[in-house]
Design a protein that fits this description.
Layout lengths: L1 E2 L6 E4 L2 E4 L2 E4 L14 E7 L7 E4 L4 E7 L2 E7 L10 E6 L5 E5 L3 E7 L5 E7 L8 E4 L12
Antiparallel strand pairs: 1-2, 2-10, 3-4, 5-12, 6-11, 6-13, 7-10, 7-12, 8-9, 8-11
Amino acid sequence: MGELKIEGCLLTPLKKIPKTGGVVLHALKSSDIGYAGFGEIYFSSAKPGIITDWKLHKRMTLNLVVPLGKIKFVLCDQRDGSPTFGNYIEVLLGPSHYYRLTVPPNIWVAFKGVSESESFLANIASLEHDANEAVRAPIEAFDFDRRGD
């Protein structure tokens, strides 16, 4: 497990346990570092080549896992007073790079499906969905293709 170049963001390796006819993919336990409570879990799909707009959660911690496909996440720290203000990180997740990406509140996140078919992510969110809790910005607001610092 490691802290990324944005304070509070974590990348945690996850277990894949082979079983007859398939595999068990771990995601998050309440005893794991990065667990910030449970509000809901939801799944999102990412079509190949499509980039989402930027999104920032004001109170929610995200725990992102990609069990199917491959997704590139870009995070941007624009928190006033943060020691990592202005830093970007890029993380590629999928079954061949099976990690959990923990994103604390107030970090901008956008993502792009980068496999040949539709990809799926799970977000184990610390809060239930609240439309007033998130802020959105167009993809042009920050540099999605900038490499990590």
